[in-house]
Design brief:
By secondary structure, this protein is mostly beta strands. The protein has no helices and 8 strands. It has strands at residues 19-28, 33-44, 49-61, 74-87, 91-109, 117-136, 141-152, 157-169.
């Protein structure tokens, strides 16, 4: 009986140790169509990637059946996500999901008079998720496309952003 030995070799993740900050903007599906701006910080450790983000959304195009035009609906979210990524010298991809806190301000009927509107502020937890695909245009500056979302009970959404990335620490892929 002939046997062939098998060899396994560990390959370190090329973005291990890399840290980057992204400032981005785009559109999402909150309140029909909303504009959104935010920042996220990512760090790839030895085992996984940790990502923190803060986002602000504001209603841009009201829904056709919207009854309140007194104010624009707004959403502020902060989130902590875990995931992984991979990359090379000129590119990277990453993704993660986690837990977040959402503060939403929206227009609703007044309690006493159904002909009047009031602004309501509500807090809820959410599940933020994000996928990034970026290219490095220099050693420290890049651009990326982000697909993101937040599943929560007040205003879940999906969206897309274009971002500017600043690499603060290089990974193994340099």
């Amino acid at each position: 009986l002939l046997t062939t030995p098998a060899f396994a070799q560990y390959t370190a993740n090329p973005i291990e140790g890399m840290q980057w900050l992204t400032v981005s903007g785009g559109l999402n599906t909150a309140d029909n169509v909303s504009w959104q701006a935010g920042a996220s910080f990512a760090k790839r450790g030895e085992v996984l990637m940790t990502q923190m983000r803060a986002m602000y959304s504001q209603e841009l195009i009201e829904a056709p059946d919207d009854t309140c035009f007194a104010s624009k609906n707004k959403l502020i979210e902060i989130g902590l996500m875990w995931g992984d990524g991979w990359g090379g010298r000129y590119w990277y991809v990453s993704g993660g999901a986690g837990r977040g806190l959402n503060v939403r301000s929206y227009c609703d009927y007044a309690i006493q008079n159904k002909d009047e509107f009031r602004t309501v502020t509500a807090v809820t937890s959410g599940v933020p998720a994000q996928i990034d695909a970026g290219i490095w245009v220099s050693k420290t500056i890049g651009i990326n496309l982000q697909l993101l979302g937040n599943w929560n009970f007040r205003q879940p959404y999906m969206g897309a952003h274009l971002g500017c990335v600043w690499r603060m620490k290089e990974g193994r892929g340099k």
